[in-house]
Specification:
Layout (H helix, E strand, L loop, with lengths): L9 H5 L7 E7 L3 E12 L3 H9 L4 E4 L7 E2 H4 L1 E8 L5 E12 L10 E9 L19 H6 L14 E6 L10 E5 L11 E2 L5 E2 L3 H16 L7 H17 L5 H10 L9 H21 L3 E7 L4 E3 L25 E2 L10 E8 L2 E2 L6 E12 H7 L9 H8 L10 E10 L2 E11 L2 E9 L10 E4 L5 E4 L2 E5 L12 E11 H4 L4 E10 L2 H26 L14 H11 L4 H17 L6 H15 L6 H18 L5 H6 L2 E2 L5 E2 L7 E8 L5 E3 L21 E2 L3 E2 L3 E2 L2 E2 L5 E3 L31
Helix pairs in contact: 5-6, 5-8, 6-7, 7-8, 12-14, 12-16, 14-15
Length: 752
């Protein structure tokens, strides 16, 4: 591959009369753009002849962006090789020139940037200077053409050679290049043509001109016609001939027009035009098929090398700063930022005939929901969020990547009377799945309710206990992937306790933070990729692995190294890993997954043995090593941030390693009023009047049953009791209540 440039039609490739410059590399630095150019010459084995060839270079001027008078080729280009032979024993010389230009990237804005060059003859055959050599060129290809800088010189200049350096948005343009290769792998120097059968063939300018001329003559033969449909097809055919004759798809576009004809019989004007056009097109296609077939290939652009600080630890001045400017906050949160201070709660007074501890006294049921913003905790409180932006991690590795590293381990619902803990409902979790409930009571308190047995109208009984459960829920507008967790809780207590002043609840959610284990996995992956790419570089540096003329790897090395690594190539893995970490640390790809993928693929192409260069590989490995030492090495910025350490005076300074648990906690004392559902408040309708033949909805000796439908309570009337009201002072005043499936549908405070 490395010497194919010297095979085939080298006269057209290197220039017939004027040498064509080659842009070999464009290196982008923080404030400079360095370009390496080459000129290739046909020389002989006769020293005197060669001397004359080199002497002719003194009459050539190189123009690049911003050059007013051009650069004298004979003085600027250096011979780096003059004994280059191809398979036909033709001899060549390579001349090399490197220039560096200061560039203010801030001025670029949201524009594209091209580098271009061409060579012009300074003096004509009579020794007179050619005109227009002092005209100023511009910094982009488009503006250069608009200013006619090249157009006015093209009659005594080489072809205009250009390379896009930056796309819109300031991104380095490493777009793949389309080439067409012959059977030997040699690139076609001219634009090929695609046949009707969609294959590609080598052709000549004469062939294109002849086909275009026949189309023009066909259209002209019809003159002006009043047949609008015929005129439309003539216009379309002419338009293709004028705009597509220089393109690859010239014949394909003509065939598309041909296939759109509604009539194909010679009895109509449209049909006649169809047949005439078909004859021209098919004859041209048949002639094309006799030519040399080409293979279309998409190859990476290996000319552009980004040497800005982005690969050594900064992009456009952006250093790693995740949480650097803010001290790490305490791990316990009692602000309501993570456990929402909006608690949905309902308190109902029940009367039941069966209690575990003591029969025949009233019980207050406390039921409701509290909410944990797991997403906010993971993004803002986890250890790994102090190093990387969690959103980026989830975008790259999946939304559930950190779930097992930041699991809920326990919830607590604690009832207080003043400052005295009365009881605790504790629920344990394993791998984010609930593992049972445990209720503990204050030993000194009487009338503790840990179970309620409800008798239904048919005589069956249902036992219900205090609990906390994680419930699935969603909003009307949908939460999507956002993890807002809803915990359902239920508690019971003696009614005499419910009305005491100073009552409150505290909700605690415990999360185990092992996200640094995920960080360790990322670093282990980075280290493995770095070791592998260093091994690959050691192979590449060996003698004869690359060609010192174009710095590309030799064929035997390409085949050997690909066989060595099989399908898991270290250059692909290293490029992927490094690109991810450049974005995580320096925001090099702005967190956009598609850009990360594209940048990784482009970088892999630049360092692969098949398409890359040794210089690009050496530069990549150096940058990756430097990046690792700057952030992840023993004294790296991230390493120091994570590790437990002691200050110079011996005192202990906490670090991320010391924070292995996060506790979201919320105190809640805005308890809603109590709704009374005792027997005195039940009013029977006429239809439900007891006729003595049934229990009329009452269980036992005239006491009310709690009637259960689904998972809710069906009660007809009720009455509110304030927390400070004595049970013996209750008076009438009915409040209608209907219990829903969740028990939260009510007219009382705190219900929803």
């Amino acid at each position: 591959m490395s010497r194919l440039i010297f095979e085939g039609d080298t006269i057209n490739r290197f220039g017939k009369k004027i040498p064509t410059p080659f842009i070999e590399k464009i290196k982008v630095f923080e404030s400079q753009i360095e370009t390496e150019l080459a000129i290739y010459l046909h020389i002989t084995d006769d020293a005197i002849t060669n001397e004359q060839i080199y002497e002719d270079l003194n009459n050539l001027v190189l123009f690049t962006p911003g050059e007013r008078n051009g650069i004298l080729v004979g003085d600027s280009f250096e011979i780096v090789g003059d004994r280059i032979y191809n398979s036909e024993a033709q001899r060549f010389a390579k001349l090399f020139y490197k220039e560096s230009k200061n560039f203010d990237f801030e001025r670029l804005g949201d524009r594209e940037l091209y580098y271009y060059c061409y060579v012009s003859i300074s003096n004509d055959e009579d020794g007179n200077p050619n005109t227009n050599l002092n005209e100023v060129t511009r910094n982009t290809l488009v503006s250069a053409i608009q200013a006619n800088a090249y157009d006015e010189r093209k009659n005594y200049s080489s072809p205009l050679v250009y390379e896009k350096v930056f796309d819109f948005g300031g991104l380095l343009s490493n777009e793949p290049v389309i080439i067409y290769e012959d059977a030997l792998g040699l690139p076609c120097e001219s634009v090929p043509l695609q046949s009707i059968q969609k294959n590609y063939y080598k052709t000549t300018d004469t062939f294109r001109e002849q086909l275009k001329g026949e189309i023009d003559n066909l259209v002209a033969s019809y003159g002006t016609t009043e047949n609008q449909q015929l005129q439309s097809f003539l216009d379309s055919t002419s338009f293709i001939a004028q705009t597509k004759s220089e393109n690859v798809d010239f014949i394909v576009e003509l065939d598309r027009i041909l296939n759109s004809f509604p009539s194909r019989t010679s009895t109509s004007q449209i049909g006649t035009l169809y047949n005439r056009l078909k004859d021209i097109l098919f004859s041209a296609n048949d002639a094309l098929l006799l030519g040399e077939r080409l293979q279309k290939k998409l190859v990476p652009n290996t000319k552009l090398i980004d040497l800005r600080g982005g690969f050594s630890g900064t992009v456009e001045g952006r250093e790693w700063g995740r949480r650097n400017e803010v001290s790490y906050e305490p791990r316990v949160d009692d602000s309501g930022a993570f456990l929402y201070n909006t608690v949905l709660m309902e308190r109902q007074e029940l009367e039941t005939s069966e209690l575990l501890t003591e029969p025949n006294f009233n019980v207050t049921s406390i039921f409701g929901y509290f909410f944990l913003d797991y997403e906010k905790a993971l993004h803002g409180k986890s250890n790994i969020s102090q190093i990387y932006e969690v959103e980026k991690l989830l975008n790259i590795f999946g939304n559930k990547a950190l779930d097992l590293f930041f699991p809920i381990t326990k919830t607590e619902v604690i009832k207080f009377n003043s400052d005295v803990r009365i009881r605790t409902i504790e629920s344990a979790y394993s791998n984010n799945r609930q593992d049972g409930n445990n209720v503990t009571f204050t030993p000194t308190r009487s009338r503790q309710v840990d179970k309620v047995v409800v008798t239904e109208t048919d005589g069956t009984s249902t036992t219900t206990i205090p609990y906390t459960l994680l419930r699935g829920f969603d909003l009307v507008e949908s939460l999507g992937d956002y993890r807002l967790l809803a915990f359902e809780f239920q508690d019971f207590e003696a009614s005499t306790e419910s009305t005491e002043a100073g009552q409150s609840y505290r909700f605690n959610v415990y999360i185990e933070d092992s996200t640094l284990d995920f960080y360790e996995l990322l670093i282990a992956q980075f280290e493995a990729a770095l070791d592998a790419i260093n091994d690959y570089l050691s192979y590449a540096n060996e003698f004869c692995s690359y060609n010192n003329i174009d710095n590309k790897f030799n064929d035997f090395f390409v085949e050997a190294i690909e066989n060595l690594y099989g399908s898991r190539f270290p250059w692909s893995e290293a490029a992927r890993v490094f690109t991810i970490h450049l974005d995580l640390i320096n925001n090099a790809s702005d967190g956009i997954k598609n850009i990360i993928i594209d940048n990784a693929q482009n970088q892999a192409d630049l360092i692969s043995p098949r398409n890359g260069t040794l210089d690009a590989l050496q530069n990549f490995v150096e940058n990756m090593n430097s990046f690792y030492e700057k952030y992840y090495g023993d004294q790296g910025e991230v390493t120091i941030r994570i590790a437990s350490r002691r200050t110079a005076d011996g005192t202990y300074e906490p670090s991320l390693r010391d924070n292995t648990q996060f506790i979201a906690t919320l105190g809640f004392d805005d308890l809603p009023n109590i709704v009374d559902f005792t027997v005195e408040n039940v009013v029977q309708s006429d239809e439900d009047e007891d006729d003595g033949t049934s229990d009329g909805g009452y269980a036992g000796s005239g006491r009310p049953a709690i009637i259960v439908e689904g998972s809710g309570l069906r009660v007809t009337t009720g009455r509110e009791i304030t927390r400070r009201e004595s049970p013996d002072d209750r008076e009438g005043g009915e409040v209608g209540v209907t219990g829903g499936a969740g028990g939260l549908s009510s007219t009382t405070q705190g219900a929803s």
